[in-house]
Amino acid sequence: MTEPSDFSNLQLSAGQLTPLASLQLQPISRHFQLLRQGVNLAVFSLVWLVLLMLWLQPWHELPVTSMVFVKHALWLWPLLGVIRALYCWQADNHKHFALREHDISYSSGIFFRKVITQPVVRVQHIELKQGPLERKTELARLQLFSAGGALHTFEIRGLPLEQAQQIRQFVLQHKDAQQDEQQ
Amino acid sequence: MSSNNEPADGTLPQLSQPVTQAHWQRVSPIGILYFFVAVLRFFIGQFVYLIPPIILLFNRIKDNSGLALGLATGLLLLVSISALLKFYYFQYRLSAGTVEIRSGVLSKKYLNLPFSRIQNIKLEQPLFYRPGDFVCLQLDTAGSVRQEARLVALRRPFAEALKQHILDIRDVASGDSSPAAAQPTAPDATTHPEQLLNQRSLGDLIIHGISNNRIWLFLGLAAPFYNQLADKILDLLLTAGIDLAAMFDPGQQSWLVIGLYALSFTMIIMLLFTLFSIFGAVLSFYGFTLHKKQGNYIRRSGLLTRHEVGMKLSRLQWVALKRDWLDMLLGRVNLRFEQINGQQQQFATAQKIMVPSVTPAEAQSLLDDAYPDNQLNHLSFRQISRRFLWRYFLLYWLPVALTVPLLLWRQQYPLLALCSLLPLAFWALLIVMRWYRYGYAQDDSYCYIRRGYFGVDHYCFAKYKLQQVQFKQSWLMRRAGLCSVKLVLASGSLEIPFILAAEGNTLREQGLYQLQCSNKAWM
Q1: B520 to A118: CB separation less than 8 angstroms, yes or no
Q2: With an 8 Å Cβ cutoff, are A111 and B468 in contact?
Q3: What ipTM does this complex have?
């Protein structure tokens, strides 16, 4: 067992794992923020276009109540889209992560702040996930699974792929070091 | 392939031979009965929703008794044949370090389980295994639920020897055993006698039955039969000269008498329910013993099917001492040793050892045995902030308390509006009690959490068992310098709401420090 006096748990930046950079709380990727805004825009525009077509189409007479619904939806929907875009932008601005020698922390939330700290020794396995859009933009989602159950999976979204791989390497190597010590 | 030629003296020669020389074996023929019961249970489980219609159509079935009899016989035959086939195709092979199981009639299953991977070993003895002293040995792995292996019918000495062998091997594999336990070939019972930690008498179980009403389960199961049951009971009472309908008719009786009848009727029903509950407690906990042997806890209990559950002390995640209000009155505690929970929710009960209705002193001594340096009894718990009350009153209680009575009043139900104040008052009381009961404490190695409503639950866990910590703050909490801390363990998570942010930080930091510097495994 390590002597408590030898114990250290200094803050690290992801850059220290590879050559440079030094940061405290690191924000998630700006690309991820833009990607979210893009997806948001696309989805809302698509639905709005469908509503517009419903409003303008001459072929099928819609009931009056439906027409009233469509009319209001035509201005409410973009408003909702703008609110969501603003919220997502702010929410993403509040997402940070930090690495220390023995744990990873992730903080999020505008009104309800939440900081999750995952000790590296307790990580059971790691997953790096990429959806099709994330692959295009070279982003990745890092998931650390502990024995705390599926509800408590530690996840950092919107990491640049390279950085995510570095963190994964850091966790894996940390595990190896631990096991070597135990043997 | 050899037949079931297990030695009864506890020596296991096949456990020292390599896989290539090992033989496939069948379990004892009594296993057919085991499979029969299992298949029958499966059938009943599949068609349980058909039971109420069958009861409704009972008269029609009585008219066609020949057909019904034929159907029933056919079904029994089907079950018997499938039990026979299942038995025939169930084979196992023991060799040095592994157990292999081949099973399945149509879809074949092959399971190879190294002894070092086995987490839990359970011995189960259904009623029909008692005369021949057979047991069912169940081997669980940490991985998935489907990975569990059952050796369905083994003679007890053989099963015990195998169990001991696996435990020894596991100790050696995890490298945390004493040198004496490191010899897998010497499962010597005399050097490691079982130490009796606790046993429950019939009186304790009756108390457990009274204080832990499992009757709601019975009620839920019996729901389809309510109507028939009510009719039957009314008929029965009529033949006994009691006319319930007349007794409760306001035209024939005064309100006072009806009230008295209703009261005594309720009392009788409550008494019946309690009797059922006591019966349930005795059924599952009869002859309860908790033993300790080489860092393993072994629980044995059961009136019909005897269960034996083993848990390694190092897998223990937390100890929960639970008391609801009746337990408080009767001065009892339900103590639980809980281990990994994970996704295996449906097996949650199998993952913990519960010691039913012990006295507080017994509970403390059990806790001291698991965590020798715990200070649960000497520590004073810190209360959480009063803002907890504000949040729940303003955010949840007040809106409901304003709208519901007002709405009822406006809908011309003044009496109902008045009545609705009662549950509202009770809810308010619950919130206050929740706040009052919440408390936390910590020492160098343990965390203690107290919570409950009218009863009190205490949780105690070693800090190095933590899996993750979470720190939460709403905007208002941040202004007041408060936070909530969630401590995640393998057996679940515990939240301490509305404590000072500085204390939350210490709790987090010290927990992380303990787990990171101790280098101890969590299981």
Answers
A1: no
A2: no
A3: 0.81
